Amino acid sequence: MQDIVSKAIVHGVYIITTRTKEKINGMTAAWVSQVSLKPTMLMVAIAPARFTHGLIKESGYFAVNTLSKNQIEIAKLFGFKSGRKHDKFQNIPYFDASNGSPVLMDAVAYFECKLIDDFKAGDHSIFTGTVTDAKILKKDAEPLIFKWDDYF
Ligand SMILES: Cc1cc2nc3c(=O)[nH]c(=O)nc-3n(C[C@H](O)[C@H](O)[C@H](O)COP(=O)(O)O)c2cc1C
């Protein structure tokens, strides 16, 4: 079933970032969507085992960073290592969004969200957030579309 879903449901590729008092971190996520118009709200599905899962709950904020089509290596950097053991931001320039979430300077756009809810959904949690800060950083860049074979 999963092979059919991943070929026929279209996703982009994003870096979900967050900041707690002690730590910044980011992870790659494809399962991201808008879920409300007014207020503008996004969702991201994150497995409980991810380090980012606990950090977002602690922080109360997360940012969705949109990657461009030439940034598969950044998706791999943030998607195959855990921030529990690695500083994934070591060589990644970033700035802080209004509520402190790190934003990749090289992102196409970012959306910082205030965490509103989390719901259990099978083996993932759905985090919903209201967009509190957003900007297009690269006007003409094409977003990266998730293709299973690029990574797995
Ligand atoms: C292309 C790609 C897409 C991914 N999408 C998701 C996703 O939507 N949700 C999720 O929980 N993990 C996803 N992952 C896996 C996490 O990015 C990965 O487990 C990461 O190492 C977690 O980092 P952390 O432990 O620092 O939070 C994806 C990985 C890749 C490479």
Descriptive notes:
This protein is an alpha+beta fold and 152 residues long. The chain has one domain: Electron Transport, Fmn-binding Protein, Chain A (Pnp Oxidase, Chain A, Roll). 16% of the residues lie in helices and 40% in strands. The chain contains three helices and nine strands, in the order H-E-E-E-E-H-E-H-E-E-E-E. A seven-stranded antiparallel β-sheet has the order 2-1-5-8-9-4-3. Strands 6-7 form a two-stranded antiparallel sheet. The longest helix is centred in the middle third of the chain and has 9 residues. The mean pLDDT is 97. It binds flavin mononucleotide (FMN). Flavin mononucleotide binds next to strand 2, strand 4, helix 2 and helix 3.
Unreliable spans are none
The distinct bound ligands, ions and cofactors come out as: flavin mononucleotide
CATH superfamily: Electron Transport, Fmn-binding Protein, Chain A
Q: What count of domains describes the coordinates?
A: 1
Radius of gyration: 14 Å
Structure keywords:
alpha+beta, 3 helices, 152 residues, 16% helix, two-stranded antiparallel sheet, 7-stranded antiparallel beta sheet, binds flavin mononucleotide, Pnp Oxidase, Chain A, globular
Short description:
The chain is 16% helix and 40% strand. The protein has three helices and nine strands; from the N terminus they run αββββαβαββββ.
Question: How are the SSEs placed, and which strands pair?
Answer:
Layout: H1 2-8, E1 14-19, E2 24-29, E3 32-36, E4 41-46, H2 51-59, E5 61-66, H3 72-79, E6 94-96, E7 102-104, E8 109-121, E9 124-136
Antiparallel strand pairs: 1-2, 1-5, 3-4, 4-9, 5-8, 6-7, 8-9
The structure holds flavin mononucleotide (FMN).
